[in-house]
Amino acid sequence: MAFSVRYTTDIPRLNSPAPGVPGIGPAWSRVDAEGIAIAERAALGTTARVAAWPPEDLDLALAAVDTELERLDRQASRFRDDSELSLIHREPAPAHRLSLGLAEAISVALAAARWTGGLVDPTVGGALIALGYDRDFAAIGPAPVPADRPAPAPGWQSVTLEGTVLGLPAGVRLDLGATAKGLGSDRAAAAAYRVRGRGGILVSLGGDIAVAGQPPVGGWPVAVADSSDPGRRAPDQVVRLTTGALATSSVTGRRWQRDGHQVHHIVDPRTGWPAAGPWRTVSVAAASCAQANAASTAAIVAGHDAEAWLAGTGLPGRLVAHDGAVRLLGGWPEGRRD
Amino acid sequence: MDQQPQDPRAARARARGLRQVRRWSNWTAAALIAMTVVTTGYFARASHSAAVAASAAGVAGGQPGTSASTHQPCVSVPVATSGGSGVTSQTVVRSCGPGTGTSVPAVITTGRTYEGGDS
């Protein structure tokens, strides 16, 4: 089954946010090198990085990225009380009229669930809350064990979306984490390229990377790392991305203690507990970052079936097992360890 | 050699005919040029689409290719990192623009010790 979704292109724009807006961190830090410019800021609980060539007019690209990230945060954040998603969760109703942007984000999440056979599922929100991931990750600390034990996700089939009308059963909590950051990179890269209309753009949201326009010679060089641990973060490989997107999912980061046990944020919808397969990190390249993000997460969840599932998609993928063994699929380039 | 005197009306008609032929010729040439441009553009787009289709996302090994346009920069060191809850700070950037022959290292430091994301 193909991953099929068409992004909405005509969504009313928000004003570019000022520094300090919830969800968006302090202003961009910028550096110019020969031929390209790079800027970085904290956003959406992670780091946003933009690389562009030519380096002129980078501010136009950054403003476009800010707009997209702020809009996505207002639409789909689980951690903002004033987000559209939070309002829906608080408002028991058989049907909700959504903004075009949130409808798009949920349609992408449902498409990913259908495409992965439920390996990623936006109805894992309740399981994540039961695991203690009920606030921005940086704010998670020692806390009482939540009363609810994680349980299998209600299932994406229980959610309906017709146009912009969402049907959400009572008590079902959505988490768009497996696709939303990828969608954000896709939206931001397209918007930043559109506003400049020349050269090339790379947007990375916490390592979920989308490119638009023309890449540098040979493609954008991107380091692929197995771990987010600052002590172990030397890149394993450098690949070049000419089109599309690249995303990595890993169980080595975003870990916390629950009831004396360490848990992580990639939940198996079939159990409601963190995925416990043989792969610790999976990187996938795809036409869109939302698809790459869904595929890399699905492969972690698929466990021992990950190789067969990912091979079936035909997408280039790199899997790293808990013992460090690396498996390359779908034409992922061989490469040296740096 | 005897030359027959030219009839002025015949000469004017001949000149008109020649001008018309030249106009047609000019229009034909312009049309041919336009068609060539359109066709070239189409195949350029088609070949680009084919290249994209051949690889859902263009991903290659770490060495840059040799076919540089005069405008594209040559970037030799990673500009971003994909690593799960990805660390993207403190990447050293060095580029090698065509014709520059030099490289400038640069470091971005955000001061954050942990950069994570839900992935």
Question: What can you see in these coordinates?
Answer:
The complex is a heterodimer of chains A (338) and B (119). Chain A has 338 residues and is of the alpha+beta class. Chain A folds into 2 domains: 2-76 and 179-255 and 267-329, ApbE-like domains (T-fold); 84-167, T-fold (Orthogonal Bundle). Chain A contains 7 helices and 16 strands. A 9-stranded antiparallel β-sheet of chain A has the order 1-2-3-7-8-11-14-15-16. In chain A, strands 4-6-5 form a 3-stranded antiparallel β-sheet, covered by helices on one side. The two termini of chain A are 37 Å apart. In chain A, 58% of the residues are buried. Residues 9-25 of chain A have low confidence and may be disordered. Chain B is mainly alpha-helical and 119 residues long. Chain B contains 1 helix and 4 strands. Chain B has one helix at residues 8-54, and strands at 59-60, 80-82, 92-93, 106-107. Chain B has a two-stranded antiparallel sheet. Chain B is rod-shaped and about 90 Å long. The model of chain B is unreliable at 34-55, 86-95 and 97-119 (pLDDT under 50). The chains are: A alpha+beta (338), B mainly alpha (119). Chains A and B meet through strand 1, strand 2, strand 3, strand 7 and strand 9 of A and strand 1, strand 2 and strand 4 of B. Strand 9 (220-224) of chain A pairs parallel with strand 2 (80-82) of chain B, so a sheet runs across the interface.
Itemize the secondary structure elements and their pairings.
The complex is a heterodimer of chains A (338) and B (119).
Chain A: E1 29-33, E2 36-43, E3 46-53, H1 58-76, H2 84-90, E4 96-97, H3 100-115, H4 125-131, E5 160-162, E6 165-167, H5 180-196, E7 200-205, E8 208-213, E9 220-224, E10 237-241, E11 245-250, E12 255-258, E13 261-264, E14 279-286, H6 289-302, H7 306-313, E15 317-321, E16 326-329
Helix pairs in contact in A: 1-5, 3-6, 5-6, 6-7
Chain B: H1 8-54, E1 59-60, E2 80-82, E3 92-93, E4 106-107
Antiparallel strand pairs in B: 3-4
